[in-house]
Amino acid sequence: MAYVLQVDFKMDGPFGNEMAEAFSDLAKSITEEEGFIWKIWTENQNEKEAGGIYLFKTKETAEKYIEMHSKRLAGFGIPEVNAKIFAINSKLSEMTNAPI
User: Fold this and answer.
1) Strand partners, 42
2) Which terminus of the chain, N or C, has fewer Cβ atoms within 10 Å?
3) CATH fold of 3-95, please?
């Protein structure tokens, strides 16, 4: 069963195209994480928030990732990270065209 990891945090920027350019190496490194399937990057410039929705193969790999990622974000000056892990209801998700 796959698991969704929802992450958000306060961030002053960059956003949009500048974010894409600044974080391209980070994006590439995320694809190499154990159990990683995909990520949707999220941003809200007005609220100064960013984060993502991730899909991992197991709950354990999602937990391992958020532990590492929280430390990495702290190194970027982002001390508070909100993270939740959810199991996926595959049958209902397939009915609504989820990319799983």
Assistant:
1) 51
2) N
3) Alpha-Beta Plaits (3.30.70)
